[in-house]
Amino acid sequence: MEKELLIPNDEYLKSGIHIGTKFKTKYMxxxxxxxxxxxxxxxxxxxxxxxxKVLISFMSNYAPEDIIVVARRENGWKPVQLFGxxxxxxxxxxxxxxxxxxNIQLRTFTEAKVLFVTDPWPDRNAVEDAIKMGIPVIALCDxxxxxxxxxxxxxxxxxxxxxxxxxxxxLTKGYLENRGMINKGGFTHTxxxxxxx
Length: 197
Fold this sequence. Notes:
The chain has six helices and seven strands. It is of the alpha/beta class. It has a single domain (25-179), classed as Glucose-6-phosphate isomerase like protein, domain 1 (Rossmann fold), CATH 3.40.50. Strands 4-3-5-6-7 form a five-stranded parallel sheet. It has a two-stranded antiparallel sheet with strand order 1-2. Helix 2 (45-59) packs across helix 5 (161-178) and helix 3 (77-87) runs parallel beside helix 5 (161-178). It is globular.
């Protein structure tokens, strides 16, 4: 089982990517492996890995200029910014500027073909804009997220610095390799580059 995962199971566990919240929605039930005695829901690592593989192959169909990644929450800023720098994708950290996907009059208007948000709740304005424009929405969803209007749900702890770093490290590495922007094994950044202060 181990060798089928993108990285060893221990690496996933160390990042806390599987640790959910005390609140769980019906949308995320299928991804939950168990609820701990302290009430925290635990996500299924195999499903997380499988969805990250889907995420990488789906995103790899798009040129960097067609991708927008949004992170309102501060723990996502560093990994999202680094993903943008290394791939050339457009990123918005902090406040998402309203209308950039919908208002062609804006100087900042951006045509995109796919949107990836680190959390569909704080990033809901970007999600709403993408829906209006018919752009597929990918979201990193924790146990407490609602996933209606999300085209691809990637389960995972979307609040932790280490887990966000890991997701974006895997995505960046896979994306660059799949697009032929680097050779397989040519990715020199570490997970820590994406998650440490």
